[in-house]
Amino acid sequence: MEDPVWEDYRRERDALRRILLDVVEGIVVRTPFQRAVVSFYEEPIVPGEYGSKTGIVDYATSGLPWEEEKKILSALESGFAVSGGRYSPERRIGNSYFYPDGEGIPLSSSLVLQSRRRFIRPDGWHADDVLIVPFWDDGRIVGQISVDDPRDGLRPSRGLIERLEETAALAAIAIRAGCELERVSEAHRTFRILAESAMTGVLIVRDDAVRYVNARACEILGYPREEILSLSPWWQVIHPDDRPAVWNDGTGSGPGTIRGIRRDGRTIWLALSSYPLEYKA
Fold it and tell me: Are 60 and 171 in contact (CB under 8 A)?
């Protein structure tokens, strides 16, 4: 009979692994980046502090050749530690870190990708460019996304970085929830619903209020995030004739088309899918 403590540990690790795989696969499918590594840390680290170090609990990759996978495995087996010093305040853009031409970060570091592809455009992505999108938790970093090889050969726009940040934030929410073992399956399910929609618009609503809104939904509806979160009732963004379609019993609905109302008063068509889920973040 399996030890209950070991069984709980295995379930938690399995949930973490599934979330990391969803993150990395979603990035490669839904963004221009063809290679990605996602990792989660043993302990939170303080950005900018070289003395703040931790190990890697688990990681997932997509688009990497086997020789690069072997380098990562070898580094982890030898006790590789992540330092807060890699997150330089001078390289911070929003909630991410961008190192043009790898300046200021050791490219030998594991879990940071270095391209073998040659890029032509002088103002585009360079082989040594490094973009890191952390998983944040109360001002500290608990994991990261590293991406490389954009199909379009361009450096990421602010909008693309924000979408990656949304994915990282959603993953952090799901991982925190997954630490409560009775909610492991629900945490993974919640993340999948959100992550699969992260490149479109997401609203999480409860009662009459919006509890979560992503950047893409703000863009579509023309509202600042704070204003959407303060709307009461939230269905003001839905055309009056179509509001009954969103007043359901919490069981969700399949895909459909409804009319929305932007902040500037314009009516727009929205492709809508709704899902019931547990969300306590």
Answer: no
Query: What's the pTM?
Result: 0.67
Asked whether 72 and 111 are in contact (CB, 8 A), the reply is yes
Count Cβ atoms within 10 A of the Cβ of residue 1 and give its class: 0-12 exposed, 13-18 middle, 19 or more buried. exposed
| Cα–Cα distance for residue pair 56/110, rounded to 1 Å | 11
Instruction: Decide if 230 contacts 237 (C-beta within 8 A).
Output: no
Peptide bond into 106 cis (omega under 30): no
- Distance between CA atoms of 17 and 63, rounded to whole angstroms? 17
Question: Could you read off the pLDDT of 70-123 as tens digits, one per residue?
Answer: 888 888 888 888 899 889 899 999 899 999 887 877 544 556 656 666 667 777
Return d(Cα 183, Cα 180) in angstroms, integer: 6
Residues 16 and 80 in one domain: yes
Helix, strand, or coil here: 41? strand
Structure tokens at 46: 């303080």
| Whether 26 contacts 10, CB under 8 Å | no
Within-domain flag for 153: yes
Give yes or no for a contact between 38 and 20, defined as CB atoms under 8 angstroms apart: yes
3-state secondary structure of 128: coil
Overall domain count for the chain: 2
φ and ψ of 280, to 5 deg? -120, 10
Domain coverage including residue 145: 4-183
Q: Is the Cα torsion angle 75, 78, 82, 83 positive or negative in sign? A: negative
| Whole-number pLDDT of residue 237 | 93
